[in-house]
UniProtKB/TrEMBL annotation:
Domain Bul1 N-terminal: 67-357
Protein name: Bul1 N-terminal domain-containing protein
Superkingdom of the organism of origin: Eukaryota
Short name of one Pfam family: Bul1_N
């Protein structure tokens, strides 16, 4: 088949029952040896075993449905790892690799977006003189978040969570063949003349000395994560976040030493798998990384013992014999505004109310136990009769004051005498600042995209031919529509009730931007939005939150132990998170200073002037800055505050989004 390159397509192919079980339903205690002769012979009859009931009972004990925590794919991070003499590579290409045809590599500077396809191939080469057996070969696209476990400690320990993992079944090892493209891929183990590689792997799952095998992959990048990726089901944690920071695990930790080349706008090490480092205002250890991963898993083998590490044991059913990944850049400029309209302070008040009710309940149960009433049902009846008269009133952080007008003073630089003016800043709901990359990097990345024809596969257009695709009616793109209105200016109103005041004719406004990284080692119970007042992000506010919820946590543990009553997992996780939650801010000076001419209007109360401040990026200041979109995940969030410095007054903060 020779498809028109202007009319490429790529189809989703559902796995067979055999393939699905082989890849997704294998448990850590799976001792079944998959037949080496390939796919099962259907129609054969087998004698019934007298121990079938025992086998069913044993199978139920490790059923992947009843015990998903036992699945091999859910325990990759816990498996032991060794490095066999296998040379592996992951190559991104501009279009899906075709058997027997030359390919063009994709630039590592390219920045992918939701709906894009990332395509390429992996190679595995045996560099020793012995046959190397393996059990599973996995090719996946993954998103990983990292954050320091103890921000105030000198110990470099990091929390790591994989929030996105999807497999290309046609690229993973399986018995049989899947070809989701219209191109001829060649027979299994046929040699590709372009790079002298063997396509696929044999059913014996062995790599012979000097043999170099290849498998092709294709992934479509999503806009949203599955609901299962957030344990609390928070909708605002589901949009896929942009790449951010540098993983402390990249290149064995060496990637954190990479510095940005000011002339290029980015930094990168001279080895495969190096991340692209930019000035994105990330803090040490905070990162969101996307990568294509290649893992080879094996069963216990005598050959493997020669490559054990110091702490490797032979007590395992599966072991990772090669683990390799290559990161790529990703951004998402279509993250919508928060679904939860309540400020973070109101959300904290709600959690405190839950804590207050539980504290009262546990204290009263403790008193009943001391009085000799041990029966739980009797305790419930007595507490229900008492009602809620004794609920505690705990201190809260106060109600938001983001909508209360601020006041500024204009001194002798503007007037002959000091003047106090009231300022009321207008809402920016539904608007967002535009994110941007360093200018040198953006030019190169745009050139890469223009030269790339590998945005593979939209689904094939409708035709009436005999070879028409069964997916003709499927949506042609998963990319979301435009969700944000660009924030190009800020409007505010100046007011005065002093009719005798000498009114200023112009003012100087210096816009600024502050970026806040909020993170915790436990699931964040808060949603951050533009209704959250700027003072919430102050260091003092976070210190107060940490200490307060540390006290709540200690008190609840004490009472729970005293009454032998459990604390709900969700509330306990929230308290741990708020106790360890941290916020670090960075200031950006990227806007042009504006001199605004004022036009005053007489009112019954005094005078009013409507002011419109343009927000214009200064190219010299933004040249090497990477302003990423606002986002929030279960453990990490990036939020922004726009600051307006009017005259010599302290800056006024306005929570905004960047998209």
């Amino acid at each position: 088949m020779s498809p028109n390159p202007e009319n490429e397509y790529y189809e989703d192919v559902l796995p067979s029952f055999e393939m699905h079980n082989f890849l997704f339903n294998r448990t850590l205690f799976d001792t079944e040896r998959i037949p080496q002769s390939g796919l099962p012979q259907y129609g054969e009859s087998y004698p019934e075993s007298t121990t079938s009931s025992q086998s069913v009972a044993a199978e139920n004990q490790i059923s992947p449905i009843d015990n998903p925590d036992l699945l091999v794919l859910n325990n990759l991070s816990t498996l032991q790892t060794i490095d066999l003499p296998l040379k592996v590579s992951i190559v991104f290409t501009k279009k899906y690799p075709v058997f027997g045809e030359p390919y063009e590599k994709e630039s590592p500077l390219r920045c992918y977006q939701p709906g894009d396809m990332i395509v390429g191939f992996v190679t595995v080469e045996n560099t020793c003189n012995e046959i190397i057996p393996f059990e599973m070969l996995l090719v996946s696209l993954e998103g990983t978040m990292t954050a320091p476990q103890s921000p105030n400690s000198t110990c470099s320990k990091y929390h790591r969570q994989t929030f996105l993992r999807t497999y290309d079944l046609s690229a993973c090892f399986h018995h049989g063949c899947i070809n989701p493209t219209p191109y001829k891929m060649g027979e299994c183990l046929s040699r590709d003349p372009v790079d002298d590689t063997l396509y696929g792997f044999g059913d014996l799952k062995q790599i012979f000395p000097g043999a170099k095998h290849k498998k092709c992959f294709a992934f479509r990048l999503p806009s949203y994560l599955l609901e299962t990726s957030c344990s609390s089901g928070t909708l605002d944690h589901l949009p896929v976040p942009p790449s951010f920071g540098v993983s402390p695990f990249a290149l064995g930790g060496k990637a954190m030493d990479i510095r940005v080349n000011e002339a290029l706008g980015y930094g990168r090490a001279d080895e495969q798998g190096s991340p692209i480092v930019t000035n994105d205002l990330g803090d040490k250890g905070l990162s969101i990384t996307y990568s294509v991963n290649l893992r080879l898993l094996g069963r216990p083998q005598e050959l493997y013992k020669r490559f054990y590490k110091r702490h490797t044991t032979h007590d395992y059913q599966f072991i990772i014999v090669r683990d390799f990944s290559v990161p790529f850049r990703f951004t998402n400029t279509n993250i919508p505004a928060c679904y939860d309209g309540g400020s973070a302070e109101k959300q904290l008040d709600k959690i405190e109310h839950q804590v207050a009710e539980l504290l009262v309940d546990l204290e009263e149960r403790g008193g009943l136990i001391e009085a000799g009433i041990i029966d739980t049902e009797e305790q419930d009846q007595l507490l229900a009769a008492q009602g809620a008269d004794k609920k505690k009133c705990l201190d809260s952080l106060g109600d938001p004051t983001s909508n209360i007008p601020s006041k500024i003073r204009l001194g002798k630089g503007f007037l002959k005498t000091d003047a106090e003016l009231e300022i009321d800043i207008q809402s920016t709901d539904g608007m967002a600042l535009t994110s941007f990359e360093p200018a040198p990097l953006k030019r190169v990345a745009l050139a890469c995209v223009k030269r790339s024809t590998g945005q593979l596969p939209q689904y094939r257009p409708f035709t009436t031919s005999n070879t028409s695709s069964i997916f003709e009616d499927v949506s042609v793109s998963t990319a979301p529509t435009e969700l944000n209105t660009e924030l190009t200016h800020i409007e505010f109103v100046l007011k005065t009730n002093d009719n005798a005041l000498v009114l200023p004719q112009d003012i100087t406004v210096k816009p600024g931007l502050r970026a806040f990284n909020i993170y915790s080692g436990h699931h964040l119970p808060l949603v951050f939005n533009e209704n959250t007042p700027c003072r919430f992000y102050d260091t003092g506010s976070f210190f107060k939150i940490n200490r307060k919820f540390e006290t709540y946590l200690w008190e609840l543990k004490r009472l729970a132990k005293r009454t032998n009553r459990p604390i709900s997992k969700h509330l306990y996780e929230s308290l741990l998170s708020l106790n360890k939650m941290r916020c670090k801010g960075n200031t950006l000076d990227v806007f042009e200073v504006q001199r605004i001419r004022l036009k005053w209007e007489k009112t019954k109360e005094g005078f009013v002037a409507n002011v419109k401040v343009p927000l214009i990026y200064e190219s010299r200041k933004t040249r090497n800055v990477h302003l990423i979109p606002s986002f929030q995940t279960c453990f990490l969030a990036r939020q922004y505050v726009l600051e307006l410095k009017i005259g010599k007054n302290k800056p006024l903060g306005i929570p905004i989004r960047v998209a």
